[in-house]
Please model this.
Amino acid sequence: MVSNGSRPLIGVTTYLERTRFGVWDVPAAVLHRDYLDSVVRAGGNPVLLPPVGVWDASAIGFLDGLVLAGGADVDPARYGRPRDTRTGPPRPDRDAAELELVRAALKLDLPLLGVCRGMQVLNVALGGTLAQHVEGHNPAPAAFEHTGVAVAPGTLLAGVVGLATTVHCHHHQAVDDLGDGLRVVASAPDGTVEAVELPGSRFVLGVQSHPEADSEDDRLFAALVAATAGGVGR
Model:
């Protein structure tokens, strides 16, 4: 765990994508830099976690916190639903690695922040399901919808952002049946679940939005980093 004066190590999940850089056009582990900058501004050091290898509790004991990044749709086979035609192609490597990471983080009581897909992975890991298509939260490729959300009082999230906030959204799936132990703590005007928490944990928070996209507001990442030293959620 974090010692006084050191920066906590925050693991951040990555994608496997075919990527062009320099003279190369190859499969690579990649991630939006916004996540890295958000962790650094919040006082942590980011550690990239590719969706290869084994990510059980023994493998992540060196981390102080975990961010599950956004990305592709979770395979509905993971939560026992038939595939909707609008659901994206499966990413079995990423699903397997991130579900394993969630279970490992929960076993270790490691502070965890799930972002967009990351919140959905958290929900599925705890036995929940997803709505495979919702309208109005995915305006255009590479564009964000600015959505006002209401936050439940007395929650971890309310202590960080207050009872109402505006968030950056880009998603077409959402939480449906809630995973075991999770609590809905924020919602959009149309009822879409915008955030969940796991009461009794040190810090487990999932948000449907993309806080890394707002360089003016690092409160969620700062709360994660604070939790690594016991400052939030205990």
User: Anything to note?
Assistant: The chain is about 20% helix and 25% strand. The domain at 9-228 is CATH 3.40.50.880 (Rossmann fold).
